[in-house]
Amino acid sequence: MVRMLERRGDGGLVEMAAWRPFGPLRYPTWWVSEMWVDSGSPAVHYRHVRGITTGMDVVWNIQPAGEETDVTIVHEWDGPKWPLIGRAAADVVIGPVFIHGIASLTLAGIRREVERMHA
Fold first, then answer.
1. Taken in order 85, 55, 61, 1, is the CA torsion positive or negative?
2. What SS3 state is found at 100?
3. 3-61 pLDDT, tens per residue?
4. In this structure, are residues 74 and 58 in contact, taking their beta carbons and an 8 Å threshold?
5. What is the pTM of this model?
6. Which of these, 47, 56, 53, lies nearest to 20 by C-alpha position?
7. What are the C-alpha distances in Å from 1 to residues 14, 29, 31, 80, 101?
8. Is 53 helix (H, G, I), strand (E, B) or coil?
9. Angstrom distance (rounded) from CA 3 to CA 88
10. Contact, 17 vs 30, CB < 8 A?
11. Over the stretch 95-112, which tens digit does the pLDDT of each residue have?
12. pLDDT of residue 115
């Protein structure tokens, strides 16, 4: 789920939420990001400003590849500002389990939608 909280010239403030599946169970996630589009790249940038991933920088790189398009998502983050365990929590749980999992599901959903639109 993506909801625009505030529109600005090339982006704005967006609230995002997703469910991270764990077999039959689902865990809710939520964050707010500053978003802007770099049409020269082309890329979409996000800076997480609320939620557990505050301070994370994310870039969606979009590149033509013949008749297809390659989309990659790059996350940069040092982890939550928790004493002693913040970086470990990011490296062991938050990054590989939640961030990678949600990004993979997001890319798969985009692919399905694009293929459905062009079918």
1. positive
2. helix
3. 999 999 999 999 999 999 888 999 999 999 999 999 888 899 999 999 999 999 999 99
4. yes
5. 0.87
6. 53
7. 10, 10, 11, 23, 15
8. coil
9. 31
10. yes
11. 999 999 999 988 888 888
12. 85
- CA 18-112-96 angle, to 5 degrees, is 45
What span, in angstroms and rounded, lies between the C-alpha atoms of 66 and 64?
6
End-to-end CA gap in the chain:
24
Q: Which residues contact 52 (CB under 8 A, 6 or more apart)?
A: 31, 80, 94
The token duo for 90 is 């990011």
Residue with tokens 């529109």: 7
Contacts of 26 (CB under 8 A, 6+ apart): 19, 20
Q: CA-CA distance, 102 to 19, in Å (whole number)? A: 8
Identify the CA nearest to 9 among candidates 31, 32, 39.
39
